[in-house]
Design brief:
There is one protein chain. This protein has a single domain, classed as Deoxyhypusine synthase (Deoxyhypusine Synthase, 3-Layer(aba) Sandwich), CATH 3.40.910. Helices cover 50% and strands 13% of the residues. The protein has 14 helices and 8 strands. The chain has a 6-stranded parallel β-sheet with strand order 5-3-2-6-7-8, with helices on both faces. Strands 1-4 form a two-stranded antiparallel ribbon. Strand 7, helix 13 and strand 8 form a beta-alpha-beta unit. The longest helix is centred in the C-terminal third of the chain and has 22 residues.
Amino acid sequence: MADRSRRTAAVVPIDLNRVKRYSHAGRSNKTRLSLLGRPVKKSGVDFFESLPRFLKADDLREFIAQVVKARRKGRPFHLLLGAHSIKVGLSAILIDLMRRDIVTGLSFNSAGLIHDLELAFLGGTSEDVAAGLKDGSFGMARETAQLFSAVCRMAQERGLGLGAAAGVFINDEKAPNRQLSLFGRAATMKRPVTVHVGIGTDIVAQHPEFDAAATAAASHVDFRLLCSLCAEIDRGGVLANIGSAVILPEVFLKALTVARNVHKYKSRLTTANFDMVMQYRPLQNVVTRPTVAVGKGFNFVGHHEIMIPLLAWGLRLGFER
């Protein structure tokens, strides 16, 4: 009977003050500043003209043309970005598209904010998960949690969304690599940025500094902001999902629903999904459902570190013509 009672005893939440942490400075990172991509400096019209007029090559040209058309009419081009877009070194390329007034806004999952903070302040990100999982050290760099928590506190104190607070924090604290921070540069250029958090999906939830209430409240401000952005995107704008398989496609579908519920207008929408494999939710929630009878959705399969520089190259050419 005693053994049975021990097995059925109530489970209590673990005390995160007991976790063993280490300094980020001693961690080996897969992503370092010296490895990041850079925007192209010279155009290459002949390359895009040489592509076959079939299938995905033609789709890519058509999608680029839709972005150019939308931006020339003053309509938004908004990106939903999975964290992998930062891990594979695309930050500078995406910043260049914002600087050229091609990309008008960004949305991330919370892992995107984590990787951006680590690059901006610490110069490296993307640890070896398998190695850290063996001894329980995965995600236990204390600086990462401290930076994330500081952003959440600023959001709470100033009534900001998580994305806006991150940009202000990175710039106010003069992060050493803030010129390569998507959040920092977006704040400087006054581009809207939103962050959509799943509690427990990211390493910061493992740390004692993590304030779930403050994080969720700031992320909900960003959801409401995305609802307002969707009302503009849905009137002739363009949206692309790059590498988020679940969270951002789900958030986008709900934000678009709110926009169409609150604001009555005629929808005109172009969307695209860029990912390494075919995923159910992006195909349904980004490419197919939102564009039924009001526009067109595109799907491109390929590695981000190749496809997104290619897209950026094509966009620049489109605006130069």
